[in-house]
Every structure is written in C-alpha cells, then in structure tokens.
C-alpha cells in the first residue's frame, strides 16, 4: 500500500510518535510525505520515506496530485484545527481528493491508529483490485 503522511507544525511531534509506535507495520508499505514531516519521521524511525517538497512550497499539491491519480491508498493528515499557521495550506483540498477517490483519510490520532491497524489486518486489500 502507498501511504501519504502530512502534519501541521503543532502535530509533527505526534506524527513522529505515531510512526515510532507503528514502525513495524509502516515499514511493510511505501510511505510518501511532505518534506518536513517526512524528514522528521525518518529521523526518529529510520523508515525510508519518499519526500515531496515542503508542504507550503508545493508538497501538499504534490501529494494531492498523487491522490488525484488514485495512487495513494491511505492518508494520515494530522491537522491542527486550533492554531494552524498562516503558511500552512488548508487540508480541504487533500480531503476533497480523498473523498473523490474513496481513499481512507485520518485527520486525528484516533482515526490514524484505526487505519494503521486496518492495514495490518489487510482491510484495505480491496484497493489492490482497483
Ligand atoms: O505544510 C504542511 C501541512 O499543511 C506540511 O508540510 P511539511 O511536512 O513540509 O511541513
């Protein structure tokens, strides 16, 4: 499965901890991430991550483009609903593209954990048949 990761600045530590906790599952999949999120996760997990540009420099659009081509099977977008920075792109375009292609997307920790566990159970295998 191809997994997309992106986190607003205030959620990057949470993304690092999530990826540490589920490193063994994530390591069996191909991970794509916006630049800073990807670098920070790599630093703490040694996972190999294909990194886009930084989110505000076009990385979010690069991820969106892959989603638009239905090439991403699951997205974890840990967004900050309370204090999103001015330079941080709005998540709505990514969420919209996921909804167009029926791609599972988690925007908070609870759903992210459910999705990662579902990966391990093979619940998303139907995406291979697309
Ligand atoms: O901008 C982002 C979320 O809006 C994420 O991009 P970075 O991972 O490069 O910080």
UniProtKB/TrEMBL annotation:
Please name the PROSITE patterns in this protein's record: MGS
Write out the GO biological process terms. methylglyoxal biosynthetic process
Q: Which GO terms describe its molecular function?
A: methylglyoxal synthase activity
Do you know which InterPro entries this protein is assigned to? Methylgl_synth (IPR004363), MGS-like_dom (IPR011607), MGS-like_dom_sf (IPR036914)
Q: Which UniProt keywords apply?
A: Lyase
The task this protein performs is described as: Catalyzes the formation of methylglyoxal from dihydroxyacetone phosphate.
> NCBIfam families from the entry?
MGSA, PRK05234.1
**What is the name attached to this protein's record?**
Methylglyoxal synthase
Q: What is the originating organism of this protein? A: Petrocella atlantisensis
Query: Which gene holds the coding sequence for this protein?
Result: mgsA
